[in-house]
């Protein structure tokens, strides 16, 4: 029990550091791009960031709610993507945390910060008060994010097996084939 608590504390510290570094990196990149891009292009980048957040939130919910049994049956029939699906589902807490909390929340925060940068740019170009644009743009971003995640959660819960299957297929493309690491049935180091 003490070992599990230590593992949870270590995971929390690890995810804190990862989130801090990722958010800083993504923020720097998006903020530097926003100053150079036309407002329409910046708006599409914000929509893209929101879409990434909603998509990863869907993956996190799907993995957290999906049953492992269909994939165990697929694995018994040697369907390759089943192995990665089972790994995802056995680590559902970590996968859900990374997808929903880390990537999803980072995208929400970055889209909001990027929206403020766009709002200031729009306000300076039009000689209007910045605060009005900040309120309007941040409200639209929040509404799109919340509505997107609400729709995404509904889809993720009802289509969790299909989503996990698709994500597993994508992961499988990048996995090393077990046959390449074996010779005459024995694993090589």
List strands and helices in order, with pairings.
Elements: H1 2-36, H2 39-65, H3 69-76, H4 80-90, H5 92-126, H6 130-158, H7 160-174, E1 182-183, E2 186-187
Antiparallel strand pairs: 1-2
Helix pairs in contact: 1-5, 2-5, 2-6, 2-7, 3-4, 4-7, 5-6
Structure at a glance:
This protein is an all-alpha fold. 85% of the residues lie in helices and 2% in strands.
What do you see in this structure?
The chain has 189 residues and is mostly helical. It has a domain at 51-161. The chain is built from 7 helices and 2 strands, in the order αααααααββ. It has a two-stranded antiparallel ribbon. Helix 1 (2-36) runs parallel beside helix 5, helix 2 crosses helix 7 (160-174) and helix 3 (69-76) packs antiparallel against helix 4.
Task: Throw out a few tags for this protein.
189 residues; mainly alpha; 7 helices
The helicity comes to: over 70%
Tally of helical runs: 7
Please give the alpha-carbon distance between the first and last residues: 33 Å
Secondary structure: number of strands = 2
Sheet with the most strands, sense and barrel status: 2 strands, antiparallel
What fraction of the residues are assigned to beta strands by DSSP? under 5%
Mean pLDDT: 83
Task: Determine the oligomeric state from the structure.
Answer: single chain
> Reading side by side through the largest sheet, how are the strands ordered?
1-2
Radius of gyration using CA atoms only: 21 Å
Low-confidence stretches: 180-189
């Amino acid at each position: 029990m003490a070992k599990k608590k230590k593992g949870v504390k270590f995971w929390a510290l690890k995810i804190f550091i990862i989130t801090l570094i990722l958010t800083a990196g993504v923020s720097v990149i998006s903020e530097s791009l926003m100053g150079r891009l036309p407002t329409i292009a910046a708006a599409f980048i914000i929509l893209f960031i929101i879409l990434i957040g909603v998509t990863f939130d869907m993956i996190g919910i799907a993995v957290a709610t999906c049953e492992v049994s269909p994939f165990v049956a697929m694995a018994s029939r040697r369907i390759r993507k089943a192995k990665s699906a089972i790994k995802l589902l056995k680590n559902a807490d970590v996968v859900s945390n990374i997808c929903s909390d880390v990537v999803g929340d980072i995208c929400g925060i970055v889209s909001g910060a990027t929206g403020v940068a766009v709002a200031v740019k729009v306000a300076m170009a039009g000689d209007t008060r910045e605060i009005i644009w900040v309120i309007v743009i941040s409200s639209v971003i929040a509404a799109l994010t919340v509505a997107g995640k609400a729709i995404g959660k509904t889809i993720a819960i009802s289509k969790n097996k299909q989503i996990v299957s698709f994500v597993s297929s994508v992961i499988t493309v990048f996995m090393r084939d077990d046959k390449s690491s074996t010779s005459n049935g024995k694993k090589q180091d």
